[in-house]
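subagent[fold] <- orchestrator: predict structure for attached chain, return tokens only, no commentary.
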Amino acid sequence: MSSSWLEFLGTCGAHTAQGVVTDFGDAAAELAAARTATIVSPLRHLGVLEVSGADAMSFLHQQLTSDVKHLAEDAAQHSAWCSAKGRMLASFLVYRKGPAYHLQLSADLLPLVRKRLQMFVLRSKVHIADLSDTQELLGVSGPQAETVLRMAGLPIPAAALGTVAFAAGIIIRLDDAHRFEMVVERNAVSDLWPALQSQAHPVGSVVWQWLEIQAGIPLITERTQEQFVPQMANFEKLGAISFHKGCYPGQEIVARTQYLGKVKRHLYRVHSASPLAAGQALCSSANPEHPCGMIVNAAPAPAGGFDALAIVQEAFAAAGDLELAVPGGARIAILPPGA
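subagent[fold] -> orchestrator:
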């Protein structure tokens, strides 16, 4: 049961809120550790759907923006599911487990996405299951991440977005840096955690979310659902869009946006001294009555304040006078690449 896993983490010093680990007793030190140390985090803000059955591959290939048909057994890919208007209903990290496909997404969207995907199954031989009761996600990041995994007896994918199975789950290498995710069977995760925690600094989910912001990986949540076409969130740069496959929901709009070059909103990393949250509108002092952007994801920053990914109209981003779209809204600074 999920409660027993959270209770176990509680004995390890974890503080939780609404089923998510917020910290292990010192939130500031945990954020500081993310910059230079090796950390391990329970990722309970994420969930996983399993799509299985004889028609699983063709079904997903016809629904998602990525090329599911050519996804190798030892690889993962970013993807999105769009409305007919080309707006993202969810963002995914897709990987395979045997003949089945797993879709990692924001946990707050999982019930709705499962229900809505099920509407398109019709007569296809496809089964869609919520794995929340059987699996847990863990993240490991930092300069000694590979050493931590080896000392825990775990295999290491060689390439970015490579996957490798082990007895109790799957490990995904997220990028060329030292960031890994583990999808672990619930009945084994309590045995694995002590080995990881002994070698890495345990941190709350917000620290992992800050690392995702640093990596420029947007996550669509309930607050930002149906707000953006994929190119606004740099999904073509993440390899999450195939422009050579057949139709999928929103494909015509996504393709037209790409080939006509009409993307006027783009993804930026931003910072504010004041709290930021997904779904908050941004405006410019040059046009304060009309929003020119929106926060996609946000997290506390190690140096203070909040960092975020935001999608902003080019012209207003260049002007550098952004603020939250509320009276007396906080100033928003666009961070330079690599900052």
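orchestrator: received. Logging for downstream: DSSP finds nine helices and 19 strands in the chain. The mean pLDDT is 95.
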